[in-house]
Structure formats: structure tokens, C-alpha cells
Amino acid sequence: MPLAARPDPVAALRVPPLDLARPVADQIHAGLKSAILRADLPPGCLLSETEVGQRFGASRTPVRDAFTRLREDGLIVTWPSRGSYVAAISEAAIVQAQFLREALETACVARLCEVGLAPDDAATLEANLGDQARAIAKGDTDGFQRLDDAFHACIARATGFERAETLLVREKSALDRLRILPLADGAHMGRLMDQHRAILSAILSRDADRATAAMRAHLRMVLGTLADLKARHADLFDSGPPSN
Prior knowledge:
By secondary structure, the protein is mostly helical. The chain has 12 helices and 3 strands; from the N terminus they run αβααββααααααααα.
């Protein structure tokens, strides 16, 4: 089924005032990405640089930069002479991203078991788990996802390899919308947190086999939910160029 231009919901977005002390393109990228992940901007939604710029109160240059990054994230597509649209979730991209993310993150935990986790990083991860529990108690799905991202980023950063975190963020972009859909289920968030605890425990014990197995099982959960989410959110999986 082709992507079709739908009534543009950009005007309905809640956009906070820009912080002029921070890069404007970063703020526009973050705002649009969050809206796409929540499906406030659904697949097929036409994104106009002019309208987005007016909504955020920004010139077209930072908007254009934000669009470029969203294309790199796989969240928007631009069709010649037709414009930029929110991309559908691609099952093929999900499977590929999962493969690459699993290879990277299992390697990260194996390295940390080999060289040891620095005390500051261990404290950061422990604090993160406490914050995850509080987010679950409040039903704060957005907060929980940020903490989930931060947990994995800290593990990558702790390896000492500068590119590990950058590669992780890039490769998991294709998975982010699929990851956020089940978070409305508090039990699902609880399972994710328990798996995070198991991963950290194995790293602290320097048990590489247990750590890699725990990380692998954790990351494969997203594939286990794919068929169900595709059935319940079929509109998010539409693909192809927008119709005339």
C-alpha cells in the first residue's frame, strides 16, 4: 500500500520555545524524532520545511539540517518533486538493524567482562536502574525509553571505544519506533528493567558467557514482538512512494 499524503498534523505538535543557547537543528531534530516515534507524525505525513520552520520559529537552514538527520535515521523519505514524508516502519530494516545492534552490544559486554567496568560507570548504571523503576511506577513511558537508551549508551561508552556509542545510536534508529510501541504495557517495561539488571549483574561478575547471553536475549525481544505489533499497527508498516 503506498504512502499517501494525509492531513498534516505538524500544526498540532506541542513545540517548546527554542533554547537559543543550544543548536537549533538539534532541537528540531529531537522534537520531530520524538513525534515520529510516538506516531504523532504518522507514516505518510507530509513534512514541509517551511511549515516546520514556522512551527518551531526557526529559519529553513536548521530545519533542512534536521531533515537530513531524520533521513539518515530512516525516519523520513524524500521523493523528488513530491516532498518529504514520514517513513513507514521497514521490516527489512528492523531485521538488519537488530543483527548489527546485537553484534555490537554483545561485543561491548564481552569487552567489559574482560577489562572490568569502571566504578563511575557501574554507579551510573545502578542509578539508571533506580530511575527506571521510578519511571515504571509513574507510568512514564517517554522517561523510561530515555533511560533505556541511556543504559545501553553507557555500556557502549564504558568500553573506551569512542565510536561504539555513535554506531549504536545510528544502528538502533530503525528499531526505535518498534521499541516504543509496547511501552504502554507496564509489565513489558518491568521485563526490560529486569533484563537490564541481569546484564549489569553479569558484567559486574565478569561472566562473559552470561553477559552476552543476557544481552542477546534482551535485544531479541523486539523481534519477538514484531508480528504482533505489525498486526495491531498495520498502518505504521505501509511502504512505497506517496500516491499522486
